[in-house]
## 1
Amino acid sequence: MKKLVLVLLLIGPMVFSQQNLQDRIYFSEALFEHLSDYNKKADLAYKHNDYEKGKQLFESFTSNKLEGSYMDNFKFKTLRKKEVQLYQFKKPVFLITYASWCIPGKGEIPALNELASQYGNQIDFVVLFWDKREKAKELSEQFSSKISVVYVDETQNQGAYVVKQLKHSLGLPTCFLLSGNKKIMDIRRSVFPSLQTSAETAYRENFIALETSITKNLINQQFEEVYAENVSLD
């Protein structure tokens, strides 16, 4: 009888964990189910030059259909050509996607570097380039050493549905704020100040927008999860 109780105690958490994993909706699944409908509505809005409507559709689509799903554990490479999986980052992740032909908004990179300096002990900052290694390495010089710069060369990518969807479905650049277990807490597009905006103002606009989202979705969320765990142990 004691052996049976011990076995149940050991396998119980495992079964519970497996059930939780089975109940998860992943980013690639949510996209597959809802992307076509979003594209039809967004294409119509942009066809009529209704950019405000397009922005509203994006925010509604990401907040209602994609946030709350879990990012797939896709692969990419470091600048040293080492293959890495997303889930190897154990902390919450701030992930932003770029490409060499997609110019970051004014003030965005300085804001990212400052945020990585302030929150790098609590969050993994990852910049993903859809590019060849040589180009990603060249562009990486703009970023702080506290930011992990990685790349996906699609000419060498042998599958990974989520990789294609990440690049082609939501446009570039796009920010994904992921909790420690890689649940998508927020999806946002970059801030693009006007060309007339001063460098300092553009930096502040980006910094405030990004820090607000980071604090709300990653820092406070992480605190709440730790607090809940401590309460349950008490």
## 2
Amino acid sequence: MSKLEKQMAIPLELPEMLKQFTKAAIKTQPPDVLQWSARYFTALQNGEPLPIKERQERMSLSNWVVLTPELLKILHTKMSGKLTIESGELLQMWRLMGLPVDLFENIMNVGHLAEDVEWLKFLALACSSMGVTIAKTLKIACEVLSSDCENGPPRIPFSTFQFLYTYLAEMDGEVSPTQVNRMLNYIQQEIIGPDGLIKVTDFINNPRVRLE
């Protein structure tokens, strides 16, 4: 063995890692190998499901995954507390998770979102693509935003709920500002405790709270 070969030791796990990567690429047949490779190794590093498609999935009309609250929560975690994000950066994160670009573009268009995207507005509209009603959309948003759902019902600050509900009602166009203010005042005065948090059960199972 030459001196150069001794200095360039190959990591023991590298051959097997490359073998699995190559098999996954052949099985998936990604249209953009570089983009898919970035998704593959990002998922591998983060311990997330690998973007590997079975044959029947490759033959479907779309290779994109379906947006779920769990995936949206991962995306929210990647935001690391940012209030705004550049649209190109957000699109890149969206693509790396395998989410459909047409849904991203639809959210941007519906919300009239521009270069600097307000994350809570984007998240609210993304949740609305999964929720049939405003109440169900807010339930999903609470589940995504809550950091303590393992200890009970998902909870978020009332101020965040107030922003989301007002924005969703405005985008919906069928809930009057008077109705929004009445419900927010009731929730704040009759439901919210000293911790300033609202639980999903506060507005889903309460017959006095009608968000539609």
## 3
Amino acid sequence: MKLQSLLKTALITGALAVSSSVLADNFPSKPLSMVIGWGAGGSTDIQGRVLANVMSEHLGQPVNVINRPGAGGAVALQQLVNSRDQGHTFVFGTSMSVTFGPLATPTNFDVDSFTYVAGVTLGQSAIVTGADKPYSNWAEFLEYAKANPGTSYASQLPFDRLLIDYIAKKEGLDLRIVPTSGGAGMAPLILSGDVDFAYSGGTHSGYAKTGEMPVLASLADDRLVAFPDAPTLRELGYEIDPGEIRVVMVPKNTPENQVERLAEVLKLATQDPRFIEITEERILMPVVYMDGDEVHENLSNQVEGFKAIIEELGGLSS
């Protein structure tokens, strides 16, 4: 009886193993969910919906977009870190949510809490100003701001507030901070001239041809595609690389073969004319393909850089 019992157990175990293997080989076996941590209509959402359509065609399953806005993308990531759905649920979002978010507010995740499938886009954030200002470049702006204490800055996120606090300390600037809610809150203040300069995560791309929102500095690792005359922060002498990557992340426990399958499809998506058109021509961001290991390494290095700045400033501004 003991031998029969062992044989029965072995058969059941073997059957389960074969079943699991078949399911893994058939991934995805059901519709997928792309969770986006930003509201509908924004650049991440617009880009993500095109990406979802392209991925669906290659995967043979629908990729449904679910918006979970809040806390700078953290709401979506808090959902992902607890997901049991492995590769069938993933987040398409900005690296800033993973690198800076946990440093700014308590979260149940950090940069090591996820598996990074791939990066597909380089962000094009910038420091911008309005038309008809008495300065046209960063050097002239610094001269103006030093001569005019209370120069106003429109801030959207704790992330950009950290950057501007760092710059203000380095340059001895006395700024008036004006909190805003997203690009929609920032743009009217810059366009009307009510605020002198601001952070823009991408809103400035809509004013690329009109000159209504000149770019003073690039917050990407390289100069901006649409504004190549604007220097990077490192070129301006600031030891910080705040470059953003738009990335696909899955739960940490996702099987390797599922991650590889998603990565394969994402690489194909970065070569798809529809994804290239929406990314490079509409939201003016360069399409890239960056594998998961490279993404993780870049984000980990960025976290250490942010920690150093926070320590230098003696903490984050309230």
